[in-house]
Design a protein that fits this description.
Blueprint (H helix, E strand, L loop, with lengths): L4 E6 L5 H12 L2 E4 H14 L10 H6 L6 E6 L4 E6 L2 E2 L7 H11 L2 H14 L5 E5 L2 H5 L5 E6 L2 H14 L6 H17 L12 E4 L5 H15 L1
Parallel strand pairs: 1-6, 1-7, 2-6, 7-8
Antiparallel strand pairs: 3-4, 4-5
Helix pairs in contact: 1-9, 2-4, 2-5, 4-8, 7-8
The chain binds cytidine-5'-monophosphate (C5P).
Cytidine-5'-monophosphate (C5P) binds next to helix 2, helix 4 and helix 8.
EC number: 2.7.4.25
Catalytic activity: dCMP + ATP = dCDP + ADP; CMP + ATP = CDP + ADP
Main location: cytoplasm
Length: 227
């Protein structure tokens, strides 16, 4: 069967990764969560005190990029690949509001983007991949056979993320989550290098009122037309 590249881009908390994981599973494709890679770099920056509420030592982070090794390892129990930083599983550490707060400034740095995009292109070079992020259809795989651009209202997205964080035991307010989602969207859409935009040939899907299985059926249908 013809293997293709599927790019799923969109705003924060549109449920891209949930649907991308399920789509990859049903097609027997590899799933790559590129947001986890930007979060891993941010986690490294926080651990090394390169970034805080008061400062961002961009030069130090850029100088240390060579010390960052990001890998993914499939977890049979969870059914998806977890992210590792220099051999340490950081899957649980990168989904906090703290990392979410600093990830978009880190992702504006061209040096960071170059390093991660190169690795993403290598991971997807043999096709048979579902990759989700912000610049997959525009920069990482501009020739992807299927490009999806996910949208949903900011409130819908913040509610979903809030519920998810509460379920994981985080103690925070809905307002904090909404603020984080809208701030990240703004930084991601207005940055100079690889801003979040819909690729011209991407299919836009507003999933505010769609169930996960409705979204999955739609995507499988689109993929099957090409495969
Ligand atoms: O997808 P997720 O919300 O985990 O992504 C976290 C952040 O990483 C985004 O808000 C964005 O700043 C950055 N990102 C990016 N390009 C990607 C994926 C994520 O700039 N391809």
């Amino acid at each position: 069967m013809n293997k293709i590249t599927i790019a799923i881009d969109g705003f924060s908390s549109t449920g891209k990764s949930t649907i991308a994981k399920l789509l990859a599973k049903s097609l027997n494709y590899i799933y790559v969560d590129t947001g986890a890679m930007y979060r891993a770099v941010t986690y490294f920056a926080l651990e090394n005190n390169f970034i805080s509420d008061k400062f961002f030592n961009e030069e130090e982070l850029i100088a240390r990029l060579g010390d960052i090794r990001i890998t993914f390892k499939f977890n049979e129990i969870l059914g998806f690949a977890e992210v590792y930083l220099n051999g340490k599983n950081i899957e649980g550490d990168i989904r906090t509001l703290k990392v979410s707060k600093f990830v978009s400034p880190v992702a504006t740095l061209s040096e960071v983007r170059r390093k991660l995009v190169e690795q993403q292109q290598l991971m997807g070079k043999d096709k048979g991949v579902v990759m989700d992020g912000r610049d997959i259809g525009t920069v990482v795989f501009p020739d992807a056979e299927l490009k999806i651009f996910m949208t949903a209202s900011a409130e819908t997205r913040a509610k979903r993320r809030y519920k998810e964080l509460l379920e994981r035991g985080h103690n925070l307010s809905y307002e904090d989550v909404l603020e984080n989602v809208t701030t990240r969207d703004h930084i991601d859409s207005t940055r100079e290098d690889s801003p979040l935009v819909k690729a011209e040939d991407a299919i836009a899907i507003d999933n505010s009122n769609l169930t996960i299985s409705e979204q999955l059926d739609r995507l499988i249908g689109l993929a099957n037309k090409i495969i």
